[in-house]
Design brief:
With 147 residues, this protein is mostly helical. It folds into 2 domains: 1-32; 41-141. It contains 5 helices and no strands. It has helices at residues 2-31, 45-67, 71-94, 106-114, 120-141. The radius of gyration is 27 Å and the shape is elongated.
């Protein structure tokens, strides 16, 4: 009888431990979300500022490549521009900031692509400057600028 009670107690302990382990695993899985950032928004601000700076300066550099008929330079800088546009969007999401519907970052790239002529950089830079102003306002309203 003693052995039966001891075995029953051990089985109950093992079931309790299994249940506790399952609960802890389930809680861990629900608290860590792949879309939720593990860093505060301020962690990303330097990278975002750098990307926004690139967004404003790249159209002029691309325009110089177009004017000089430097296709390799054009391709390289257009790839970087695309990377920066995607990076800005990703960083804003990571920071929990919403890009206003009035901000169209792709128009910078498509303006250059559709009008690959010397001088197009000024128009694309204008779009980049406008986007920068609007995104700066979003960042400032979130309290992430120390101006």
């Amino acid at each position: 009888m003693k052995n039966t009670n001891l075995v029953s107690i051990l089985i109950l302990i093992m079931i309790s431990m299994l249940s506790l382990t399952t609960t802890v695993i389930a809680q861990t899985e629900t608290t860590v979300s792949p879309t939720k950032s593990i860093w505060p928004p301020s962690h990303y601000i330097g990278t975002l500022q750098s990307y926004l700076d690139d967004l404003q300066r790249l159209p002029g550099i691309i325009d110089e490549s177009i004017c000089a008929a430097n296709d390799a330079g054009y391709q390289e800088k257009m790839a970087l521009l695309q990377n920066r546009i995607e990076g800005i969007s990703s960083l804003m999401v990571e920071m929990g900031l919403k890009i206003p519907s009035t901000v169209n970052l792709r128009i910078i790239q498509t303006t250059i692509t559709k009008n690959k002529i010397c001088g197009v950089g000024k128009i694309a830079t204008g779009y980049a400057d406008l986007a920068r102003e609007k995104l700066d306002a979003v960042i400032r309203n979130a309290g992430l600028y120390n101006e």
